[in-house]
């Protein structure tokens, strides 16, 4: 099971731009390296990341073999309404991980 760390404000003012930082623990094997037995190691990477804010996707990324282990992603969005941000990572070999964070938005 992967471990994800998400850093974002728990509250914001309506219209405020907030920064969101997400990191997930994953070895990200490229499929190009050779193991101790001289054979290629099987590819095992995270291929997609998405963030949905109250069900609407506000950020997405397609990842490839060149991404480092434990990929870190930072992005910004505008606080519009109180609700839930859902973070989803999908990868090879059926890998899928989802985390949720709540955001409380005040009028001003």
TrEMBL record:
It comes from the Bacteria. It holds the Pfam family SoxZ. Signal peptide: none annotated. SUPFAM superfamilies: E set domains. Gene3D superfamilies: Immunoglobulins. Residues 10-101 form the Sulphur oxidation protein SoxZ domain. This is Thiosulfate oxidation carrier complex protein SoxZ. It comes from Duganella dendranthematis. The gene is soxZ.
